[in-house]
Amino acid sequence: MSAHTDGHFSSRIGFIMAAAGSAVGVGNIWGFPTQAATHGGGAFLLVYVLLIILLGYPMLMAELMVGRHGQTNPADAMAKLGRNKLSQNIGKTIGLISIITATLICTFYSILSGWFISFALAPIAEIAQQPNIAHWLTDFSISRNLTFTLVFICLVILVIRQGIQNGIERWSKRLMPMLLLMLIGGAAYILSQPGAITGLKVLLVPDFSMVFHTDVLVSALGQTFFSLSVGTGAMMVYGAYLNKQENLSQLTAYVTLTDTMVAFLAALMIIPAMYVAQHNGVQIFADDGSLLNSDTLVFTVLPALFDSIGGMSQYLLAIVFFALMTIAGLTSAMSIVEVPTSYIVEKTSIKRGKATLIVGTVIAVIASFIVFNFSALFGFIITMTTERAQPLIALGIAIFMGWVWHRNDLLAEIAQQDGVNQNSLFWRVWQVYVKYVCPLLIIVIIMQLFS
Ligand code: PFF
User: Which of 32, 109, 265 to mutate to test the pocket of ligand 1 (most atoms within 8 A of CB)?
Assistant: First the structure.
């Protein structure tokens, strides 16, 4: 991500890797399967895929477009769309809320990613015949959670500070395909196991009566924006680093497709794996049929899957898988930390290195507070940021783009792209769509919460 050193992405592929790196993360492999398992399997998948097409893709493009137009942090980029003082101030406020939301997301994201680090280390402790350490690494104690949350935050800060983004970019290019291969291999293996077909049915056959459930709709909306990193300013910041000539319609499509495919593959592995684990005597559901410990589902089911392979390969697979997950989490967290960092660097005389330290410290303090009050705060912060703040910020962006931004400026922004005619059907439909349909859809789904 040379973006952070020279102000722009070095290449088209550099942008795709960074944006896909932001999108593909813990949300795909932990979030999506957990949400699908909790909210009716196939019904959730159906609503999710529809929302990705109807809202995810157009809104991701809108956010990138606003960022690229603004060439600055989210607060000022939104303010730039305003026509008068009032709308500029409202735009700035929406941008500032997105910066706060990004910071809060980074807190629970670091806790989650810390779990992946400790699960990558546990098999090493097993191989070294240190059962006590292995046990500590895989229990969800405060000391373990705190340690690895802080380790993860340090890793993110180190990467951003030292400017080795090129390293991450290069590594992502190698590791993302590996992650994909592992997911395909994992899904293929699990589907050959007894009990898996029940899980496959749960995932693929929607119960249509659940499709309009408030819970399913609102969770799928949150998951859509969370997975595509929309409504946090992260994509606005990445848009600001992107060349004006690049055609956003294609780049956004690549990012959306990659992200959705990884989420689907993860669910294809994990949901059947739940039923295989259950078949093998692991308790997954409570007596009332609800999921036991849904937050830690992936960490119960995957080790059970690796165990069933046995031998040395179980350890190797576990190390590689959880290490890849840590890297997926890292490339996402970098984009989140970039949101407040870009703001501080642009608004004050504080240098990049120090700004990342300040942001890292704030995130570490809040994350530690959540670790100590886990049951009260963890789920609460996730709901407030992903299911409330992100959709509302996306709503603000859609309204600003459709109703506040001068049409001629938007058309000029669109026309700058190579090979794009702003009067083509695609771009005309997209503008009308973001102006009318996106806000309406978001409002209708959010209103469900109050009905
Ligand atoms: N999209 C990331 C994931 O699915 O894990 C999470 C994320 C990254 C959310 C960046 C928000 C964000 F700004």
Answer: 109
